[in-house]
Amino acid sequence: MTKDNKDLFYLEELSDYEVASDYSDVRGWNVIDADKRTIGTVTNLLVSKKEERVVYLDVEVDTTLLQVGYETFQTPASEGVHGFINKDGDDHLIIPVGMVKLDEDQKQVLTNRINYNTFTSAKRFHKGADIGREYELSLFRHLIGDKAIENKDLDDFYNRKEFENVLRRKR
Hints:
The protein has 171 residues and is α+β, with helices and mostly antiparallel strands. It is built from three helices and seven strands; from the N terminus they run E-E-E-E-H-E-E-E-H-H. The chain has a single domain (8-163), classed as Photosynthetic Reaction Center, subunit H, domain 2 (Photosynthetic Reaction Center, Chain H, domain 2), CATH 3.90.50.
């Protein structure tokens, strides 16, 4: 991916962007799955420069999830041949911002639509890695359980309900 076609940036990379005063800054908050298990901690926010808004939460996954998830195998290329999805140091994943709810009192991000098993089998990445469309689409398909989403569906990708911004504080 070249810098010219890069769309996703970590908030800390963008000196002219910040979390607006009427939005919750969820960095440092724990992420809790549908089964009430701690998945990890939000370490950063990913901004689409084209959309000019946060579209993903960058989550450093909990070590217990890493221990389980490391054993995850890709679909075999041929009988008896498997490849690891995740490697040492792959301890981050992204969650579409519209797939969470906030518990501002407890400072927690709740993922009522995603459970522990879905997280453990997800492909992860190294902290700070550039997020490309291939990874983004692959993980999105995995999280929502819809393998039918095609590259041609990406023009209005961030207009899906899974990207509705839930970070605005309730009044």
